[in-house]
Design brief:
The protein is α+β, with helices and mostly antiparallel strands and 559 residues long. Helices cover 25% and strands 22% of the residues. Strands 3, 4, 11, 12, 13, 14, 15, 16, 17, 18 and 19 form an eleven-stranded mixed sheet that branches. Strands 7-8-10-9 form a four-stranded antiparallel sheet, with helices on one face. The longest helix has 18 residues. It is globular and about 75 Å long.
């Protein structure tokens, strides 16, 4: 039987801090540019999402989040091919945040709030309303019509329990490291306390790793570890049905779902797993699957005019940058003239075309162009190739006879590195490329044994985790160059940008930061990253959740 509401104050000190970063090809990014403004729903406002706009210059490419909402139920099954099989189905209970798990989590566990991908607006989900009582406390009023999988109603204690799990089990991830605790004010009202003032924290709470469960459900499943294997819990649009290890995971439509406006077209959703992208696409062509998610962009582009599949290709709020080693082990790149020479020698349009398979373009600022915080820090003229200017800077720095540099990166971006290599060769720089797997890449980044590194960060909102490479004061992992090189002024500027309650002031603060980064040439902006998928020709309703992941619950077949 469900516990009676108890008023609890949960406090935790000494939260572990770890750096969350996003890598091309290994996930960790979101959809683009939510906006804020309507105080009635907690400060969110309508804005255009980049992913709901037409992708640049690619005929035959569809737009996510643009189809009408489904209105029909069937007994059909939807099969989606994902890259790999998750090791857990409840990341918050294990601390293992995996792309595949997060997509499944969004289908089976609702959050307090949701992000409308068509408008960029934070909208009610399990919370009907909310208000910030001060910079770090937000009070949520819970809906009274949501039922957990055990048939009991959602109450404030369920949110308190969920917050406690996020803190204790995922303290080193964005799920837990910004939390202090939660208090059940009454049976349907709960206040969450954060350790960081960030008005855009609500966008983070809309991520699927913040799904709400009850302690009774978890105990009924056998405890936290067992619940991570068989998550019969939450109150999402779909319910966990079975996990056939090595084969598939099956979800079943929740016909008792609280939101009567939502209609799930498919009775079941089956997730299959293979890292062979060609095999995933062929399964869609053969009719054995309806979605092949996360195809390499270059491969997806070859199917753009296909008669057998449709292609979805879209930005998701992550911009990539070429970072210069300025740490203790840095060599020539410690000299600003060398960094400026590299920037002048690079053909950013060519790099963007290769990096996005012709679907995107180079970026001029830190945030995506459709963001309300976007500043065009560079002009198109400044982005033009200037080989002679690069050579002059290298001569001034003492490298008139040439210079050898090392870049570390991962396999999926090797064509981009090759473009950079050719660009720099024209200016007299010999660039060697060291391709690494993900663990070796992270280790290499920490070691500082390189000159250049190409990595993206998620900048679709003012999350407290953004700009991680400039917030390294107490962080020992993934420091660019193997050591902290940013300044207290920059760190304070980032903190002020994150906590500022006025959007216009925040944009100006960001502009000041960007000018400093430009003056010091900490990095060179390259392009906005894209995700892609092949889908069946008659499939509609392809939608996304955070980090550009596919929404498993919104698709349907055209009549």
């Amino acid at each position: 039987m469900k516990r009676k509401m108890k008023v609890k104050n949960l406090v935790q000190t000494g939260l572990a801090v770890a750096l969350a970063f996003s890598l091309a090809g290994c996930g960790g990014a979101a959809t683009s540019s939510p906006a804020k403004g309507n105080a009635a729903n907690g400060g969110a406002a309508t804005a255009s999402m980049a992913e709901s706009g037409q992708t640049a210059g690619m005929a035959g490419v569809l737009k996510p989040n643009s189809d009408p909402v489904n209105t029909e139920k069937t007994d059909k099954n939807l099969t989606i091919g994902l890259v790999s099989e998750p090791s857990t189905l409840w990341a918050s209970g294990t601390g293992k945040v995996e792309n595949e798990e997060e997509m499944i989590a969004a289908a089976i566990r609702d959050c307090l709030v949701r992000l409308d991908r068509k408008t960029g607006e934070v909208v009610p989900d399990l919370a009907t309303s909310w208000k910030w009582t001060d910079g770090t406390h937000c009070q949520f009023t819970l809906r009274e019509d949501a039922l957990m999988t055990d048939g009991t109603p959602l109450v404030a204690d369920d949110v308190v329990y969920s917050v406690n799990v996020w803190k204790d089990k995922s303290a080193n991830t964005d799920t837990g490291r910004f939390l202090v605790g939660a208090t059940a004010d009454d049976e349907h009202t709960v206040t969450i306390e954060f350790n960081t003032a960030a008005p855009d924290m609500l966008y983070l709470l809309a991520w699927s790793n913040f799904g709400i469960v009850s302690e009774d459900e978890v105990n009924a499943a056998g405890g936290v570890e067992e619940a991570a294997k068989k998550p019969v819990m939450g109150c999402g649009r779909y319910l966990f049905k079975e996990w056939n290890h090595g084969q598939n995971i099956v979800l079943e439509r929740n016909d008792k779902y609280w939101d009567q406006d939502y209609v799930g077209y498919y009775k079941t959703v089956t997730l299959t797993f293979t890292n062979d992208s060609a095999a995933r696409e062929l399964a869609v062509e053969a009719g054995d699957a309806q979605v092949a998610f996360d195809l390499p962009l270059s491969q997806a582009a070859t199917y753009a005019a296909s008669e057998n599949v449709s292609i979805e290709m879209y930005p998701f709020g992550q911009n990539t940058r070429l970072w210069y080693n300025m740490g203790k082990k840095a060599g020539a790149t410690k000299d600003i003239r060398v960094r400026q020479a590299i920037d002048k020698a690079l053909d950013f349009d060519a790099i963007a075309q290769v990096g996005t398979a012709g679907s995107g373009k180079s970026v001029l600022g830190y945030f995506p162009e459709d963001s309300k915080y976007y500043n065009a820090t560079f002009t198109p003229e400044e982005r033009k190739v200037d080989v002679e200017g690069a050579k002059a800077l290298l001569k001034e720095a003492g490298y008139e006879n040439g210079l050898s540099l090392k870049l570390i990166g991962m396999q999926d971006e090797e064509p981009v590195y090759t473009v950079m290599q050719e660009n720099l060769r024209a200016a007299g720089i010999n660039l060697s490329i060291d391709i690494l797997d993900t663990p070796a890449f992270v280790e290499g980044a920490n070691s500082g044994d390189y000159d250049l590194i190409h990595v993206g960060d998620l900048v679709d909102a003012r999350y407290p985790a953004i700009m991680p490479f400039f917030m390294q004061q107490n962080i020992d992992t993934f420091n660019i160059g193997g050591s902290k090189y940013t300044t207290p002024d920059i760190e304070n500027g980032v903190k002020q940008f994150i906590s500022e309650t006025d959007d216009a002031k925040a944009k100006k603060e960001l502009a000041n930061l960007e000018q400093t980064w430009k003056d010091e040439m900490y990095f060179s902006n390259t392009y906005s990253m894209m995700k892609s998928a092949a889908i069946a020709k008659n499939l509609k309703g392809y939608s996304t959740i955070e980090r550009g992941f596919v929404d498993l619950t919104a698709m349907y077949e055209a009549s």
